[in-house]
């Protein structure tokens, strides 16, 4: 059983094992990776874990309702993630590639809209700053 | 009166100075009433948006949703998962 929230490095092979099967001929994988924008050395991800866990279950259930022949799973990493390493992985397998691509896309878009997860950029000089969904710094002014 | 748990996350936890508390509101009450009480008790949270994202018992809700004794209200900064 996949642990959907983890503080360890994501192993894509574990997700593939969860979704692949001989009746599913297409598999799509999405990886979200921490970028080394400017002097960013990593991102510290935090979450409302109890809600995030339940929301992931709902998102995956909705994908299964929409694409009943598909199998979809995801893993979101929390804690400090160095630039270059994955923060999220989604794997979707279906009889044909169209369903696999569509299910994978659907799940990452739902995650972006609904998962209670936040990121704090860590910079090379040791400073850190919360960033909003578009990657801009969060200040009191931008909150209002 | 209803006692409601309140959880703060990320930037909002920094503004509140804590990540968990409880407030008491007069009933009938909504999530919006809880937020108004939070702003009084934790002045730093006045920097939150007028209408922040909120969850009630781990589901995102609108601010006019009713709350009752023992509920958990979570105040959520703009989501940035993935």
Key traits:
heterodimer, A: 144 residues, alpha+beta, Aldehyde Oxidoreductase, domain 3, 4-stranded mixed β-sheet, 8 strands, B: 82 residues, Ubiquitin-like (UB roll), 5-stranded mixed β-sheet, two-stranded antiparallel sheet, 2 helices, 7 strands, globular
Would you give an account of this structure?
The complex is a heterodimer of chains A (144) and B (82). Chain A is built from four helices and eight strands. Chain A has 144 residues and is an alpha+beta fold. Chain A has a domain of 98 residues: Aldehyde Oxidoreductase, domain 3. In chain A, strand 7 and strand 8 form a beta hairpin. Chain A starts with a strand and ends with a helix. In chain B, 22% of the residues lie in helices and 35% in strands. In chain B, a hairpin with a 2-residue loop joins strand 4 and strand 5. The model of chain B has no long low-confidence stretch (mean pLDDT 97). Chain B has a single domain, classed as Beta-grasp domain (Ubiquitin-like (UB roll), Roll), CATH 3.10.20.30. Chain B is globular and about 35 Å long. By secondary structure, chain B is α+β, with helices and mostly antiparallel strands. Classes of the chains: A alpha+beta (144), B alpha+beta (82). Chains A and B meet through strand 3, helix 2, helix 3 and strand 7 of A and loops of B.
Task: Write the topology of this structure.
The complex is a heterodimer of chains A (144) and B (82).
Chain A lengths: L4 E2 L5 H8 L6 E8 L6 E8 L1 H18 L4 E7 L1 E4 L3 E9 L2 H18 L2 E7 L4 E4 L8 H4 L1
Parallel strand pairs in A: 1-4
Antiparallel strand pairs in A: 2-6, 3-5, 3-7, 4-6, 7-8
Chain B lengths: L1 E7 L1 H7 L3 E6 L3 E2 H11 L11 E4 L2 E3 L4 E2 L4 E5 L6
């Amino acid at each position: 059983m996949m642990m959907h929230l983890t503080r360890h490095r994501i192993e894509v092979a574990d997700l593939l094992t969860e979704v692949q099967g001989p009746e599913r001929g297409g598999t799509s994988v999405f990886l979200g990776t921490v970028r080394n924008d400017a002097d960013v050395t990593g991102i510290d991800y935090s979450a409302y874990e109890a809600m995030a866990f339940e929301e992931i279950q709902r998102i995956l259930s909705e994908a299964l309702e929409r694409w009943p022949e598909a199998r979809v799973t995801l893993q979101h990493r929390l804690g400090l993630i160095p630039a270059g390493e994955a923060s999220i992985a989604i794997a979707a397998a279906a009889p044909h590639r169209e369903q696999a691509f569509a299910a994978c896309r659907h799940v990452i878009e739902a995650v972006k809209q609904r998962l209670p997860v936040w990121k704090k950029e860590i910079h090379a000089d040791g400073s850190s700053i919360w960033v909003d969904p578009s990657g801009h710094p969060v200040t009191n002014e931008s909150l209002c | 009166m209803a006692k409601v748990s309140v959880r703060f996350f990320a930037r909002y936890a920094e503004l509140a100075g804590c990540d968990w508390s409880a407030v008491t509101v007069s009933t009938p009450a909504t999530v919006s009433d809880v937020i108004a009480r939070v702003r009084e008790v934790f002045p730093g949270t006045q920097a939150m948006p007028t209408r922040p994202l909120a969850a009630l018992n781990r589901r995102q809700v609108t601010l006019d949703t009713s709350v009752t004794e023992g509920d958990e209200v979570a105040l959520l900064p703009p989501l940035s998962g993935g």
